[in-house]
Amino acid sequence: MVARRALVLLLVTSFIVAGIPSRARAAQPTDAAAGVAEAFVNLLLRDAEVQQLLQAVVSEIPAATEEQLEQFAQLAVSGATPEDLDQQLQLIVSSLPEATQSNIEQLITRLAYVAGFGLMAGAIFKFKQHKDNPTQIHIGQPVALLFIAAALLIIPSIFQSTGTTLFGQ
To answer: What is the mean pLDDT of each run of 10 residues along the chain (169 residues)?
Structure first.
């Protein structure tokens, strides 16, 4: 359970530390297709609950944890053993309050849903492109997007039921 939470925490904090696109930058699409995709993703990310979770996670991560994450990244790049990485990650996770850990898990779940819906829209768009010009867009692209979208939409419920089965409440 701790390893799963540590992995989730690492994933979310890496997204947070890397920086989430600002609304001003996302509002300036470079070309028409990218603009439509970005507008759709921005529409999905404007969900009040996602915004509230994102703000809660960002505001609850202390500066010391950010420094620990930077040290963890340097340790991972330097070729440390998996045991050293596991110890460092457990230290980082244990320093966070339970509420923050819960918010991070909820944020990852919601972002998986958002990404799933976004890829589903992309798959529909690619199917339309394939119908219009089958020689340029192969059928494999939209099918792959469709399967990835389905996986992203199903994975949160699988993780929740599997986690409950294995670890209890």
So the answer is: 51 47 45 59 69 78 80 83 82 80 81 86 88 89 91 85 68
Structural tokens at position 146? 């469709």
Alpha carbon distance 95, 20 (integer Å): 23
Region of residue 31 (phi > 0: left; psi between -120 and 50: alpha; otherwise: beta): beta
CA distance 84 to 50: 33
Residue 22: the pLDDT is 43
Residues in the chain: 169
Q: What is the pLDDT of residue 146?
A: 92
- In a 3-state reduction of DSSP, which class is residue 62? coil
Domain spans in the chain, listed from the N-terminal domain onward: 2-167
Copy the structure tokens of residue 58. 């960002």
Which single residue is written with the structure tokens 């944020």? 107
